[in-house]
Amino acid sequence: MKCEIIKDLLPVYCDGLASDETRNAVETHIAECKDCRALLSQMKEAVPEVPKPDIQPMKKIKRTLRLRLALVIGMVCLGIFVGLYNMLIANPMAISSKNISVRHFAEGIGSQYYDCQVKVKGQTRFLRGDIPPNSEVKIDKENDCVWVNGKKLAVMSVDYEPVYAPADGKLTDGGVLLVEITCDTPMKYLKRDYPPRFGEFSPAEQELTLRPCLKHKEDGEHYIEGKSFMADFPVTQCGEGATLTVHCRDKDVVIDLHKLAVEDGLLEE
């Protein structure tokens, strides 16, 4: 191949754009032609070598951005978790008044209670014995006991031995008003805030807050498995003015316990 043709092909060869056939032809020629080989060397020296860009700073920037993005996503996820935990478990909202229903009924109508104090293992305990309706009750002060239908009234047992009621107790009307509050909620558990009753008082003035939630732990004092809560009120607490107030997130629902007790035949009007 003539030198003039090779000289025309050298720029393409230097740029790496020549085909395999052209590249082979150029390399075969310059291997034999001193002038063309010298010209090729001059052309290679004339083309400046472009330095490769340093990409390390960009890698560091990208790594920093990834870490910051991961931190932000982690904080957002943590915030969402804490919010859901607080809303659904730790401090759930109270039930709406529109989502509760109340059912009530009485048990032990016509029964009686026998309230007394018993000393057990050095400690005085306040106990209550249930006396069925239409029972024959005799308070025997001579033998310091109470007879119910010819049998001594036992109010508890200690080491499998019965503890009998003494004769210095008090006989009161029996019967219990049961109030069941059901919540219409997709949750399977209820967290309740229901202050315990201290001693006997009438009329009752109880308060209750029910909060639908997810299961948190086994805690019978605060968590209920299911959607209903049952409250019981002895007849002695169902006098006029007795109420159960259910605190809801929109308003309070006040239940007239005396009215319910009359409806269920536990008390007379």
User: Helicity, in percent?
Assistant: 25-40%
Q: What strand order characterises the main sheet? A: 13-11-12-15-16
Strand content: 25-35%
| Span between termini | 129 Å
Tally the helices: what do you get?
5
Assign an overall shape. rod-shaped
Low-confidence stretches: none
Q: What about the largest sheet? A: 5 strands, mixed
Structural class: alpha+beta
Number of domains: 4
Mean pLDDT: 85
Radius of gyration: 46 Å
Q: What is the H/E order?
A: HHHHEEEEEEEEEEEEEEEEH
Verbal overview:
The chain is α+β, with helices and mostly antiparallel strands. The protein has four domains: 3-46, no CATH class; 51-91; 97-107 and 175-263, no CATH class; 112-172, no CATH class. It has helices spanning 3-14, 20-32, 34-46, 56-90, 257-263; strands at 100-107, 112-120, 123-131, 137-140, 145-148, 151-152, 154-158, 161-164, 170-173, 176-183, 189-193, 205-213, 223-225, 228-234, 243-247, 252-256. The chain has a five-stranded mixed sheet. A hairpin with a 2-residue loop joins strand 5 and strand 6 (151-152). Helix 1 crosses helix 2 (20-32), helix 1 runs parallel beside helix 3 (34-46) and helix 2 (20-32) crosses helix 3. The termini are far apart.
Features:
269 residues; alpha+beta; five-stranded mixed β-sheet; three-stranded antiparallel β-sheet; 5 helices
